[in-house]
Write a structure and sequence with these properties.
about 325 residues; alpha/beta; 10-stranded mixed β-sheet; about 40% helix; globular
Length: about 325
């Protein structure tokens, strides 16, 4: 009887130890869970933001890197990075497909996408909204002094890079040539090259000129200017006005003397560069990112940083503003002109 009691007590003691161990393990697990939820739990997970830019030798890419740094330094719980892309048209489609959160795009291309026109005919995009315009996107027709090309009319019969079909640069080239009674298909030998390949082609003599739509100075053109005397084709005042009258999203612009070694200012036209967001992003997230960018433009090392201001960010937007951006600009007392 005593032997039986001994083994019963021993079994009960062992069971108590097992239960205590399980209970202790559960307590430790609960404490660990509380710690995780206080850090990166369901409400504190890192939000990854992919900023779609353009080619590495354009303006979008370095600005995208600057914006990513500003966001990472000023918005808690967000990890942003800049990705090189095919620029405006590709960016709109990628945002539509959920392959990015923010993107750089020309205002004319954003309008085409929202309205389902031109390269977006039958492919309207309705889930991309504006964050704000940034700076003029200057249309630069780049060549060399030795080419003899001085006017748009001089491009007839020449080998000219016009950007990828469906790109913003290609659309600009079509518009500008049309105003001058020229066409891509019939009056020039068109090449569909990226900015860097375009200027390399000019340098090695395989092309005569290139359309480049980008904030100035553009890295690819600066590289060309380091090895050759660059010439930027001038626009006649009457053609500038005709272009503005025909396509409302253009504005007169000027490339300053000294840019690329130019000996005098060059009159041309521009559209606007704009930052856009996937409309699925939360109001708070877009508000915080918009605030961070427009209140820290002094941290943008590129020369275009001086042109990026909250006061001008609603000029020429052309598509619906994201609620988060609207909240920021309302608080800042900024309204569209």
């Amino acid at each position: 009887m005593m032997k039986k009691s001994f083994w019963s007590v021993l079994a009960l003691g062992f069971l108590a130890l097992v239960l205590a161990a399980c209970g202790g393990g559960t307590a430790d697990s609960d404490e660990g869970g509380d710690s995780a939820s206080g850090g990166e739990g369901d409400s504190g997970e890192t939000q990854f933001v992919n900023i779609l830019t353009g080619g590495p030798q354009g303006t979008y890419y370095p600005l995208g890197g600057a914006f990513a740094t500003i966001i990472n330094n000023n918005v808690d719980g967000v990890e942003a990075n800049a990705t090189s892309t095919g620029a405006s048209v590709e960016n709109m489609k990628s945002l539509r497909d959920g392959d990015g959160e923010l993107a750089f795009v020309q205002t004319d291309i954003a309008s085409y996408a929202a309205e389902g026109k031109l390269m977006f005919e039958g492919d309207q995009i309705d889930n991309v909204q504006a964050v704000g315009t940034l700076y003029p996107e200057t249309i630069q027709i780049v060549t060399t002094k030795d080419s003899g090309i001085e006017t748009v009319a001089d491009l007839e019969g020449k080998v000219v890079s016009v950007g990828a079909p469906g790109s913003g640069t290609y659309a600009n080239a079509e518009n500008i040539l049309s105003i001058h009674d020229l066409s891509i298909d019939e009056d020039i030998e068109a090449r569909n090259l990226a900015f860097g390949d375009s200027t390399s082609g000019i340098q090695d003599g395989t092309i005569d000129a290139a359309f480049i739509t980008s904030g100035t100075p553009t890295g690819a053109v600066e590289s060309l200017a380091a090895t050759a005397d660059v010439n930027i084709v001038k626009f006649e005042e009457s053609k500038i006005q005709a272009l503005i009258d025909e396509y409302g999203y253009y504005a007169e612009d000027e490339i300053a003397e000294g840019t690329y070694g130019l000996e005098e200012p060059v009159k041309t036209v521009a559209v606007q560069a704009m930052l856009v967001a996937n409309s699925d992003l939360s109001e708070d997230l877009v508000y915080n990112m918009t605030k961070a960018i427009f209140e820290n433009t002094d941290q943008v090392q590129h020369s275009k940083g001086e042109l990026i201001t909250a006061e001008s960010a609603l000029d020429g937007v052309g598509i619906e503003l994201h609620p988060g951006a609207k909240k920021y600009f309302d608080e800042a007392g900024v309204s569209a002109e």
